[in-house]
Amino acid sequence: RSIADHSVENESHRASCIRKSFALFLFLIYTTMASKDYYKEVSQGAQTKTSNGYDAEGFDPIADTVGPGIYGGRVKRDEKTGKIVIGKQYQNHNKAPGPIYDGSGYTEMTEALRYGKEAIQKVLKKNPKAINEITTGGATPLHMCGMSQRGQLSTAHIISEGGAVDAVDTYGYTPLHRMASNDLAIGAKALLDAGADAFKKTRCGEDAFSIAAESRAYKVIKVLKEYLDEADSKSKS
Question: How far is it, in rounded angstroms, from Cα 207 to Cα 202?
Fold first, then answer.
């Protein structure tokens, strides 16, 4: 085949790639705008709102933050059995059924995680079971440690009190997955040191490493690499 034939073929392939990329770009713009419109609409009757005008208890797509209605909040319980009521989650943020928000904000434990050991112990003294409590989004205290810089500092203490290191929330995430998505290296290391499964996958087939890579969580990537290198070294010795 002539050089000209190859040139035409390459140009055709390049044009096809450009069209596909542009179509994907338009799709992402459309879905982002649709998401913002949806959450703006469901925020209309909210008593408190974020600075962007979204329900403070739900999802703010501009700030990419969630409130207690979606993660870490108090949940409804059956009056007779005391069991958590499962159903449609707040704002339908997660379309899978999960613990229903009771409308009263974050749990005491979720709040305590930001303040450390002393605050956590006060909660556990009143309710020892709070160490593995289930909140909105199926989040446990260790999941909530993976949601903020201050929260991650409580990871080791929650583990020492019996926190389940591989608990799974309604999104299919473990605490380590949360640390990876938010680049919280201190919390990630504490979980790995406690035996958390570094290879555990979400329902979509993601693991901590792929989540960290997608989130550009370079600090957690470093922690994971060091952990894997150490594990590899031990297996060879």
Answer: 6
The pTM of this model reads: 0.83
Contacts 24+ apart (CB under 8 A), 6-12: none
Mapped onto helix, strand or coil, the DSSP state of residue 59 is strand
CATH of 42-236 among 2.115.10.20, 3.30.420.10, 3.40.50.1100, 1.25.40.20: 1.25.40.20
Decide: 195 and 164 in contact? Cβ < 8 Å. Answer: no
Query: Is residue 157 classed exposed, middle or buried when 0-12, 13-18 and 19+ CB atoms within 10 A define those classes?
Result: middle
Name the residue ranges covered by the structural domains of the chain.
42-236
pLDDT in tens, 141-177: 999 999 999 999 999 999 999 999 999 999 999 999 9
For residue 227, give the 3-state DSSP assignment: helix
